[in-house]
Design a protein that fits this description.
By secondary structure, this protein is an alpha+beta fold. The protein is built from six helices and ten strands; from the N terminus they run αβαβββααββββααββ. The longest helix has 16 residues. The relative contact order is 0.17.
């Protein structure tokens, strides 16, 4: 894709303003101004996604380090689940999200419902769309279970990797028609700003001409040195599969391991609703 000076300048300035990768002071008093937004258009323009998105879905966040003080100053702990729609103008930058959640630690709230309302309102303002928020209290922790991706695991294929540059041409199909679900735990990319590794598992469900499994696995592994946010990687994978393989139906769902108490699980599909399944073992 030709280098667009204006687009790349805007992206550079936008990303330089983030706290990610910079030394910051942690606030223990509630402060919604800590949240930082990243326009989704930065990456969507780069891969030429149409204005009418070819998918629907959510960015599903889980926060395992949520705590605040009750009205008497006694600590409360809980697990947070948030759902950011793909239609939102912005994605929420993960380090700013962590700093924001830390700001609850020494702040008094009268109830779990009050905390939930604050988080929903603050995240919705940052994302510029309604963000659904659910808080799981500690007395319900025992009800949480591990889940797994159901499908054909392709990680044991005997393939040779010669380079780690993303190459959509690795994605090929044959004339056979199929409906199948493929799973890999070998997804890895790097943070766009800090270059720290992001580890994930991915599920690809589609109908149409059968995708070559070896080529798909090579393609997924080629993200190993790629620098991009979780949400952007999943949208790139969806776009490349649609462009190269032209399936009638496609779902791409990745669940990333947590960092700083947060995991991000982008779900993109052109035919089905997001799954409400449990976290994977690595999460």
């Amino acid at each position: 894709m030709p280098f667009d000076v204006n687009k790349n300048y805007i992206a550079e300035v936008t990303l330089q303003n983030l706290t990610l990768g910079k030394e910051v002071k942690y606030s223990d008093k509630y402060d919604p101004s800590l949240l930082q937004a990243v326009p989704r258009s930065l990456s969507r323009d780069a891969i030429n996604l149409p204005k009418v998105l070819p998918f629907d879905g959510l960015d599903i966040w889980n926060g395992y380090e949520l705590s605040w003080l009750n009205a008497k100053g006694k600590p409360v702990v809980a697990i947070l689940r948030c759902e950011v729609p793909v239609s939102s103008t912005n994605l929420i930058e993960s380090k700013s999200f962590k700093l924001y959640l830390n700001s609850f630690n020494q702040t008094k709230f009268h109830s779990l419902a009050q905390v939930q309302e604050h988080i929903s309102n603050d995240l919705s303002e940052c994302a510029n769309a309604k963000v659904a928020v659910h808080i799981i209290p500690s007395e319900q922790f025992d009800s949480l279970q591990f889940g797994k991706f159901k499908g054909t695991l392709i990680d044991d294929l005997d393939i040779e990797i010669n380079d780690f540059e993303i190459n959509p041409e690795l994605l090929t199909v044959c004339e056979e028609k199929t409906l199948e679900t493929l799973v890999s735990h070998l997804l890895k990319s790097n943070c766009l700003i800090t270059n720290q590794p992001d580890w994930g598992s991915i599920m690809i469900k589609y109908s149409g001409n059968k995708i070559n499994h070896e080529g798909l696995l090579k393609y997924l592994i080629s993200f190993r040195q790629h620098n991009e946010f979780h949400e952007q990687c999943v949208e790139r994978i969806f776009h490349d599969i649609m462009t190269q393989c032209k399936p009638k139906q496609l779902t791409v769902y990745a669940r990333y391991t947590r960092r700083g108490g947060l995991d991000i699980n982008p779900f993109r599909s052109n035919f089905e609703a997001p799954y409400k399944d449990a976290r994977l073992a690595r999460q």
